Amino acid sequence: MDDVSLLTRRRLLGTGAGLASALGIGVGVPQKVQASGGVTPDDSDSETVGGLYAVATDTDGSSEDSRVALGTLGHHHEWANTAPSELHFDEASAGTQRWRFDPDDRALSPTIVEGTVFVSSGNKVYALDAETIDEQWHFTAEAEIHHEAEIHTAPQVVDGTVYVGSRNHSVYAVDAQTGEKEWRFETGDRVRSSPTVMDGRVFVGSDDNNVYALDTETGEERWHFKTGEEVATSPTVLDGSVFITSSDGYLYALNTETGDEQWRFETDPGQGRVNASTPTAADGVVYVGSGSGSENALYAIDQDSGEELWTFETDTSVSSLPTVADGTVYVISAQQLYAIDQDSGEKQWNIDMFSFSSPTVVDDSVFLGDRDGYVYEFDRATGEEKWRFEIGESVPVNSPTVVDGTLFVGSVHTDPETGPDPNPEVEPSSPSSSPEDQPGFGIVSTLTALGGLGYLLKRRVLNDEKRTQ
C-alpha cells in the first residue's frame, strides 16, 4: 500500500461558516436524538443549526482503499483504513437512522477513529462514542467573539492527536483522549484548509496565501511557501511531494522536506482567480477540478512532470475532491455526479445532483449528500440509486464517512422536534442517458440558476468577509 495522505477540504471551502452567518442561522443547545426521534436531554423546542447522523447501509465495509473525502468539503484521513474501528450496532435496513447528535452549531464532516467520532461544529471539536453518542470531551477554540474562532475544517486524527484549523488564524493540535490543547500555531489569516499529517509534519494552507509545514510535536514552522492567492484547499501528500491548489488557479507540487516548488500547473489559463479543488493523487497521476465560468473541467496531471494527460469538461465548476477507486474517478461538479475512466478521461455515467460534497466509495457503492437534504447510495458500476435517506436539511458540502456498514454525515439546519423521515418513500433517480454534448442538468432552469447563484453567494460571502477583516 502506498504511503499516502490525502486530506481535503476544498471547495467553497469553509464557505459554510460565512454563509450560515449571512443567512442569520441561530445557535441552539446540544442534544442527542435516538432513532425513535426522542430527544435527550435539555430543550427539545430549541432550534439547532446542524446535526450529525449515523445511518445504516447495505454494506459491511468501510471507506477504505480509495482516496475518499471524509471531511468538510473534502477532508481525507490518510487512507481511510489506517485506523479501523469495530462498531457493534443492531441489524437495521439500509437507510435507517441509528442516532442523531445535535451540537450547538452546524456539524461538519466527521472523522471516525477507533470507535470515536470526531466532528467540528462552530468553535468546538467534539469527541463522541460512535455507538452511544456519549460525549467524551469537547475542545473550544479561543476568541473574543464566537464566530472569529469557528473551526472551518474537518478533524485530522493521527497518532493520538487531533489537528484542526480555525477562523482565528490558527492551527490546533489537541489530545485525542482528553481534548487538551497540545499546541497552537498562528498564521496570518483564516485557516479553512484541513491539515494533512505525514512523516512528523502537519501540512496546511491559510488565507494568508501560504502553505505551511509544521512539526507535529511542537507546532514549530519548518517551512512555508507563498502562492498568489489564499489557500483554502487541503494538501495531498505522496512520494515526497505536497500537492495543493490556490485561488490563483495553480496546482503546485512542493518538496515535503524543503517546500521548494517542483512544478506548477495552471488549471484555467488567463482567467486570474480560479476556484480549484483539493487534488487527489493515484497511480502517478494528480486529479484536480476547477472552474472560472469560462472553462469548467477535471484535469489529469502527471505526478512527476506536471504535464497534462487529459481534460474532462464538466457542466459547472468542480470544487469537490475527486475520489479514485478501481480505475474510476468520481467527482461532483455542483450539478452532476460523474464517473470517469481513470486512464482515458472518458465518461462512464453521470447523474443529475446538486451537491458540493465529495463522493465516498465503499465496496460496490458510492455515497453522497446533496443540497436538497438527502444522502444517497449509488451502484458504482452503473450509477443506479440503491437507496436514499432524508435528513431534511442541506448536506451540500459535507462528505459521508462509512465505518463497518454505518454511514456518518453532518448537516446544516436540523429540526430537533421532528427530525428526518428515516424511511422516506421516494422514487429513485437514474443515471443520465442524455447525449455527451447535452448540458446534463435535468431540472428546470430556475433551479439551474439557483445553483449558480448559491455558488456565487458563497464566494461573495467569503470575499466580503476577507475585505472587512
CATH level 4 superfamily: YVTN repeat-like/Quinoprotein amine dehydrogenase
Sequence stretches where pLDDT stays below 50 over 5 or more residues: 1-46, 65-84, 414-469
What is the tally of helical segments? 2
- The proportion of residues in beta strands is 35-45%
Residues in helices, as a percent range: under 10%
If strands are numbered along the chain, what order do they take across the biggest sheet? 3-2-5-4-35-34
Radius of gyration: 20 Å
Distance between the termini: 44 Å
CATH topology: Methylamine Dehydrogenase, Chain H
CA-based shape:
globular
Strands, count? 35
The CATH first-level class comes to: Mainly Beta
Mean pLDDT: 73
Count of structural domains: 1
CATH architecture: 7 Propeller
SSE-based structural type: mainly beta
Brief rundown of the structure:
The protein is mainly β and 469 residues long.
List keywords for this structure.
469 residues; mainly beta; Methylamine Dehydrogenase, Chain H; 6-stranded antiparallel beta sheet; 5-stranded antiparallel beta sheet; 2 helices; 35 strands; 7% helix; globular; disordered N terminus
